[in-house]
């Protein structure tokens, strides 16, 4: 039995049978037989090293693939979260719109009653129990978001005012509301009823303009 060559790589002790006579058959061995055994062992070691070298790139590729999949799944999750957040916003907005329309429909039916309360107040007839009921109703519709608008002297706005009367006046510098014939009501930005008003534009004295159309007839 001989020692392995120096520098030879092996995983464990290698035993070689270098006897020239085969103990099993009694025949003289060929010198190539021992060399073949040594060569086979060397090849086995080299094959193991090559296999280990091939496994390393494969593991790296698998890690890269897993990282890519993780990034894709994370992006999908973030996209779903954003879509859900937008969905909730749309639902809340739609709920608010539906509620506003429903409340507006009810309040619109109460506007004639509110007009009667306002006229009674203007004529000092809002007294006694009628006064308490009227003020309670006005407070209730106010809590629901109903807003009364329309005041003398404010600029005329065709989006919220309905002009029923028109005249000229030297006392105004722009088209303005000079009388409120019927107040307007709105909920938020939604107008339930425009304010019906009389408006005046800057112009000559009433004596010179006549009925407000004098300039046009000259």
Automatic annotation (TrEMBL):
GO biological process: protein folding
CDD domains, A to Z: GrpE
One of the record's GO cellular component terms: cytoplasm
Single GO MF annotation: adenyl-nucleotide exchange factor activity
Chain positions covered by the region annotation Disordered: 1-62, 196-218
Biased composition, class Acidic residues, residue ranges: 204-218
Domain of life: Bacteria
HAMAP family on file: GrpE
Subunit structure, as described in the record: Homodimer.
Family: Belongs to the GrpE family.
Official protein name in the record: Protein GrpE
